[in-house]
Amino acid sequence: MSRSPTVLARRPREGAATWSLVAAAVLVQVAYPLTADTWRTPVTVLSVVVFAAAALADCARRHGLRGAATLVAVAGGVGLVAEAVGVSTGVPFGEYTYTGTLGSELIGVPVVVPLAWLMMAWPALVVGRALATSRVGVTVVGGLALATWDVFLDPQMVDAGHWAWTHPAPGLPLVPGVPLTNFVGWVLVAVVIVGILHALLPAPGDVSRPAAALYLWVYASSVLAHVAFFGRPGSALVGGLLMGAVAIPFALRLRST
Q: How many whole angstroms from its chain centre is CA 167?
């Protein structure tokens, strides 16, 4: 089927806009550890917003506005509900409280938090589809691609004072301050999000390069930042191994294609 000249002309513009947002997301994250402590919270929020915008733009480029709306509803919606239930009941992550530093809240959850689920759910789906072919395989691999990111995220946000755990032990080895139940909860919620997205968004035949860049950047930069800036060599090692179990095969898969 032939495509109209308007559609063909629009695609390069959409790609350029997406890559611009990817570059902006990287630059904001580079700035974060170099920023004075008093400015780190606004930079944290800005980082999530720009990263989420890049993920949405890439999803829209591949699946149209309906696909982007699906990403918002599924990743943002499921993430919001899971966090609201978690804050109220302690299920599925464990007992924790937000400290009020992350801005406006919706049903007890900072608005930026479901955006964080959204921003990584799209790259995680792309990773799952690149490494697996069956529905179950994509759901599990993509869910792990999303959940293992939290081995970096949670210690960083706890140290920054954005939320606190009532019972932070027992946790993963070398990752103090975050209970093991949190990571179990992340796996469960991430698998649900990726599974629904995979069912609702058609799988293209190729890998989205902007999404791949976002995911691999988060992996590499998180390992570096936890060693060099955050004083968390343990989470750098454990996160590097766990997220690397997905990120490294994904990078090799990209190289081979």
A: 25
CA diameter of the chain: 59
Q: Are strands 96-98 and 105-106 parallel, antiparallel or unpaired?
A: unpaired
For residue 48, which of 11, 16, 75, 78 has the smallest C-alpha distance? 75
- Count CB-CB contacts under 10 A for residue 84: 17
Q: E strands of the chain, at which residues?
A: 96-98, 105-106, 109-110, 163-165
Q: Which two tokens stand for residue 43?
A: 């930079």
Closest alpha carbon to 46 in 60, 34, 29: 29
Q: How many CB atoms lie within 10 A of CB 99?
A: 12
pLDDT in tens for each of the 257 residues of the chain?
A: 334 344 434 556 678 999 999 999 999 999 999 999 999 999 999 999 999 999 999 999 999 999 999 999 999 999 999 999 999 999 999 999 999 999 999 999 999 999 999 999 999 999 999 999 999 999 999 999 999 999 999 999 999 999 999 999 999 999 999 999 999 999 999 999 999 999 999 998 899 999 999 999 999 999 999 999 999 999 999 999 999 999 999 999 999 88
Residue whose C-alpha is closest to residue 122's, from 8, 200, 221: 200
Distance CA 206, CA 38 (A): 43
SS3 101: coil
